[in-house]
Amino acid sequence: MNKHYRCNKGGLWVATVLLTSYLAGNLAFAEDGQKSAGVKFRPSSSSAPSVRVTGGSRGSGDASVTLDVLAPDEVGVTTQEQPSLFWFQSKPANAKFELTLLQENKAKPLIQIMVDRSSKAGIQRIKLTDHNVKLVTGTEYQWVIALITDPDNRSSDLVASGAIKRVEPSADLKAKLAKATPETTAAVYAEEGIWYDALSVLSDRIDANPDDKALRDTRADLLNQVGLKAAAKAEGAKVAAK
User: Fold this and answer.
1) Is 14 domain-assigned?
2) In the chain, how many domains are there?
3) What's the predicted TM-score (pTM) here?
4) Is the pLDDT score of 1 beyond 50?
5) CB within 8 A of 114, min separation 6: which ones?
């Protein structure tokens, strides 16, 4: 009887260990799945040509600066007349900074902003509402950022660029947005391939809640999805430091 009891007790112990491991594994899977699926960017076309130009890094050691536009490889889209543009600079630089927005088939820039010294680092933003610039539906625009290390030799600029196009929101997107909450709106835009709006909504929430680790982690994941590893890594470092 005691022998039978010990056998059952041993079996119960093994079953408990297996069940605990199973639940722990599934919980970890669920948490990881939820984390990675929070905002999933799905570009409208997987065969679209790459137009993003990555600035890469200039200099060496502590002087090295990475510059990137926060845009997908292909032409990123927005539903907004006056969207925000985002870029990443790894560290301050003793150089002038220039941002230029160009409309296709037009030589004169819509805006050209020059800053005497690029003293900011991290993810940065310009709102077109602040510059009275409006995008026309169906028209492509190129935007270019540059660190000007030598004004007399612009070929030495560290340059990155991306493209943006304004589109009309579909009836399906409007219906989804009508049902969305502030927590899910960025995910709706990303799922529909509306890059700039997804990033803008997510960044608005981060601006309102700068200490929210989950939001920063989500933005880092979104950036990683389009290969913006330097910006994503810096955002991840902020999460770890908080």
Assistant:
1) no
2) 1
3) 0.81
4) no
5) 96, 97, 98
